[in-house]
Structures are given as C-alpha cells and as structure tokens.
Backbone:
C-alpha cells in the first residue's frame, strides 16, 4: 500500500500495541507510521468505534485523515482534527453544562480579544505572551469561566484547562469517550502546552491507548506556551510508554542531513557522501541585493533544469519584515505566505471568513472544511447543519463583486453575531490585495514559495534558500546597554528553527547572509554572519 518497505524501527513502532512515545527526525516517515498504526487499528473496530488523531494544524489533520482513508478504508467513528477542535466538539460543547449548568445562550467559543470589555474583567491579559492558563489556574478562574459560560462564551484560551476539568468531573463524558474511542494519537507533541499534556495523561488514565509523536529538535513554539519538557517527561517513563526512535531521514540528501545534525552535535557521526549540497553564501549588499541575486540564481536553476518548477523552491525568512523586503525586489513569480489581516485579528468571525474565502477561491477546499471551522465556534443541530451546508454552497458561483457582502452576511448568520468594523476592514484589505488573495488559491507550479521559517514546518521543497542568517537576527540577540557580551534571547529555540528550515530541503539547501542588512527601522547595518554559520563541526559540510 505505501510503496516502500518500512524500516525495522518503523515496523517495531507499528506492530507494538503499547502506549508509546515515538521520537522522529524530519522526513523519517512519522506520518506514515501513524497512518499505518491507525489503519491497522480501525480495521478491527466496530463501526461505532474509532481512534482520536490530533495534529497541530487543520492542514495536517486533513492530510492524516486522507492518508488513513486511502484505498477506501473505513475509519469508522474516528476523530481527526486539532486539539482545540477535539476539546470543543467532543468534550466542551457536549458536556460543559454538567459543570456549569445550562446557559441561556447558545454557547460559542471566543478569543480574549473578542470579549466585551466588561467580560474581560477578572481575567489576565491573555493577548500578551506569557499569560497562558495551565490546569492549576482552573480553581482560581472557575467562577469567571462559569460567568462567561452563563453569557454564552467559552474562552478560546481556556479550552485546554476546561477540557481537562470536564474529563475529571464528568462521568458522562468519560463514559462517552470510552465507549467511542480506543486510542489517542497526538502528533507534534514537542509543541504541547501544559493543559494538552494533562489531557493526554487523563485520557490515558481513563483507559485509552496513548501514542505521542514528536521531535524535541523541532520545538519552535515555546514563546507561546508550548514546551518540549512534556515529550521529555513521557520518554522518562519507560514503564508506561515504550520509546520508539525513528531516525532515518528519507527526505533530505545525506549532506543536508549531516549538516543539520552537526548544528546540534559537532561530533556526531556523518552519513557517507562526497556530494555536498549545502551552501553558505555571503553576498554583497543588503536584503535588496540578495533578492536580485536570488532572482538570477532561480532563473538559472530553471534554465539548467535543476528544478522542474518554481513551486519546488522555497525562500524561508525569519520574520515578516524580511518578507516585505523580498517582495519589492524579487523578480520571479512568487507567492508570499505572510501575515494576512484576517488572521491577524484572529477572531471566530475572521477565521470563518477566511475559510469561506478559501472555499470560494480554491476548488480543493470542501464545504465540510468550512463546516469544521464553524463547528469550532458553535454547535449545530442536524437540521441547522443541512442549512449551513446549503448556505456555504451558495457562495461558490458568485461574482467577485458580490463576494464581500455574501461572506459578511453568511458569517453573521452562521455565528449569529454581527461582524464588527475592524473585521469588515480586514476582509476588504484581503480582497483588495492580490498578493494576499493568492494565499487562498490552489498551488501554482509557477510560483516560488516564500514564507517564515515557522510557517515552513511540515513542508518540503527540492531547493531551500534560508535567509536572514545574520548576527542579531538569527540567533536573536538582546541589546543590553553597556554590555558587550553576546546575550542570546532564545538560542535553543532559534537553533531548532534553523534546523526546521534546513530540513525542509530535499536536494539543495542554500544558507544566505549578506554584508549589510536593513534593520526593522529601515536603517542599513553591517550584516555580520550568524553564529549558526560558524558552529564547530560544520567545516567541510558546506560549499
Ligand atoms: N521506510 C521508508 N522508505 C522510504 N521512504 C519512506 C519510508 N518511510 C517514509 N518514507 C517517505 O519519506 C517521506 C516522508 O514521510 P512522512 O511524510 O511520513 O514523514 P514525516 O516524518 O511525517 O515528515 P515531517 O518531517 O514533515 O514530519 C515520504 O515521502 C514517505 O513516503
């Protein structure tokens, strides 16, 4: 079925029926392993049973679901989705009333930024980084969560802690989960937050088989409450979790694997290869000159047939500022996956608007994808679901001049709440910017893909240009007045991000620095080489 032979390590992880933690390097086929495990498991289940498959993004969950269903396999009552989606649709919406009683309103999920100011009173400033809830906070905020529920709101930032509480307190919930699911699979466990980790342990205690998959070296979201210590803590409990290591990288050329491994360990063993496909470029000039140089190089790569299409090339950058520097000077067709005004506002309404727009512009996006987003924020009866599908379908043939109003009306109707001015403005800005609109359209083979390193996680390209390898930028350095020592803000997380970037490349990886750089205020500074380009153990591993 898979078209290749599983390695002995992969087979061991697939065949064992124990609880386990699988640590897997990039491109090691961890998705293939999870898929095979799930397929074998669901084949033996009755129709009303299934497994829980949790992924980090909606895109990853679609891929997991599709791969599990390949060849017409019935995945029965399995759930595939993000952790928030699981908590809301399987735990919170059905069982929150067991904790807080019935609400007079239809309960919806809203982020802190969406709350009326009066409802924010008594909550920490959750829009600031560093104020994530953990399960110990539940007691302190229980009355507040109940008050919000009385007003028809489940706070997005509290989903994890409330979900854990529901599993602890509600026998009905526990019975439901046990009767429906046999196992829990969580991918990208290194990016788990504390409540997600606690939920994993609670469901294990309840009697589900638990499988966690991740890679400590790909932990890149510590700044928003994720922590690799949780996957580490599973590894240190061999009596509960078998530890399987899947570490053959099937994606990257051996010279790329060697370079990537050496950034963490200057003495690690190298794969045999004399063909070096990692390059360190120090170019003259600023990021604008880099963009012009890349234009020439990319045209040459195409002309020399080193790459078949532009979409197999990625340019990865550290931050959004670099995206705009490239945008002005890059002379090849491209698609920039930058911030977009709708995701910046990040409310239930803007998320629904985004998914409606994606449905309108990309024929691969299904009505069900929009419905899944709507179900994140509201629960629907079977008859209202039918209406919802029909309403979504109705926008597919609309003329572009009427799409804005159609999306606004539909969003109001589905979430039963008026779209406010900043949300309307965000939609208008997206619709009027052809570069942002491209983010919603199907892949175009004739466009180089440009994105931040964070957004590249889980993707792969034949050729990767990894930019922004400057001192001060990557790794980020703290400016401390009067101090001349190098003080790094988050060396480990930045190194992990560098690793994620390098390991996106299948064939060639080009690491780029330039002699000057614009800083965030547009002032030209000297562009010293990143400390990451000068790590011990790299000599001879790049050209
Ligand atoms: N044993 C194997 N032999 C050859 N190719 C394999 C093997 N296992 C997986 N692959 C291939 O390696 C590639 C990566 O597999 P997969 O997408 O499952 O990896 P992953 O570990 O989930 O990647 P990521 O780095 O995105 O997390 C796929 O093209 C897959 O077909």
Residues:
């Amino acid at each position: 079925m898979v078209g290749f032979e599983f390695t002995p390590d992969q087979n061991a992880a697939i065949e064992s029926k124990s609880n386990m933690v699988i640590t897997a390097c990039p491109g090691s086929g961890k998705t293939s392993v999870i898929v095979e495990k799930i397929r074998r498991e669901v084949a033996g289940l009755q129709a009303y049973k299934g497994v829980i498959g949790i992924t980090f993004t909606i895109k990853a969950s679609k891929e997991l679901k599709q791969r599990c269903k390949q060849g017409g396999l019935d995945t029965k009552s399995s759930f595939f989705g993000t952790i928030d989606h699981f908590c809301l649709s399987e735990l919170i919406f059905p069982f929150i009333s067991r904790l807080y009683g019935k609400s007079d309103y239809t309960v919806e999920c809203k982020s802190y930024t969406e709350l009326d100011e009066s409802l924010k009173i008594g909550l920490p400033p959750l829009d600031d980084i560093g104020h994530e809830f953990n399960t110990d906070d539940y007691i302190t905020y229980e009355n507040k969560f109940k008050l919000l529920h009385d007003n028809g709101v489940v706070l997005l930032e509290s989903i994890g802690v409330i979900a854990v509480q529901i599993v602890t307190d509600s026998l009905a919930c526990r019975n439901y989960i046990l009767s429906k699911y046999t196992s829990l699979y969580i991918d990208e466990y290194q990016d788990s937050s504390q409540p997600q980790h606690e939920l994993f342990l609670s469901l294990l205690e309840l009697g589900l088989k638990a499988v966690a998959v991740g890679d400590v070296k790909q932990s890149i979201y510590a700044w928003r409450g994720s922590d690799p210590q949780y996957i580490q803590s599973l590894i240190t409990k061999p009596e509960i979790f078998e530890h399987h290591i899947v570490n053959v990288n099937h994606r990257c050329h051996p010279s790329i694997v060697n370079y990537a491994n050496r950034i963490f360990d200057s003495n690690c063993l190298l794969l045999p290869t004399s063909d070096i496909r990692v390059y360190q470029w120090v170019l003259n000039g600023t990021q604008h000159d880099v963009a012009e140089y890349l234009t020439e190089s990319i045209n040459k790569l195409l002309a020399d047939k080193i790459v078949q299409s532009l979409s197999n090339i990625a340019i990865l950058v550290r931050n959004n500022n670099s995206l705009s520097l490239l945008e002005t000077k890059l002379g090849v067709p491209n698609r920039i996956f930058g911030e977009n005004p709708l995701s910046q506002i990040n409310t239930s309404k803007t998320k629904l608007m985004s998914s409606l727009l994606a449905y309108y512009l990309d024929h691969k996006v299904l009505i069900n994808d929009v419905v899944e987003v709507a179900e994140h924020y509201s629960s629907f009866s079977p008859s209202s679901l039918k209406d919802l599908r029909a309403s979504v379908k109705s926008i597919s043939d609309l003329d572009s001049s009427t799409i804005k109003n159609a999306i606004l009306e539909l969003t109001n109707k589905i979430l039963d709440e008026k779209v406010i001015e900043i949300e309307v403005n965000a939609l208008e800005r997206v619709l009027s910017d052809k570069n942002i609109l491209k983010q919603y359209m199907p892949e175009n083979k004739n466009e180089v893909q440009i994105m931040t390193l964070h957004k590249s996680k889980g993707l792969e390209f034949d050729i990767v240009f990894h930019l922004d390898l400057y001192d001060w930028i990557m790794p980020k350095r703290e400016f401390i007045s009067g101090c001349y020592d190098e003080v790094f803000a988050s060396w480990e997380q930045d190194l992990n991000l560098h690793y994620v970037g390098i390991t996106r490349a299948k064939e060639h990886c080009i690491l780029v620095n330039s002699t000057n750089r614009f800083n965030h205020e547009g002032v030209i500074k000297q562009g010293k080489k990143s400390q990451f380009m000068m790590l011990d153990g790299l000599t001879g591993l790049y050209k």
Q: What stands out?
A: The two ends are 39 Å apart (CA to CA).
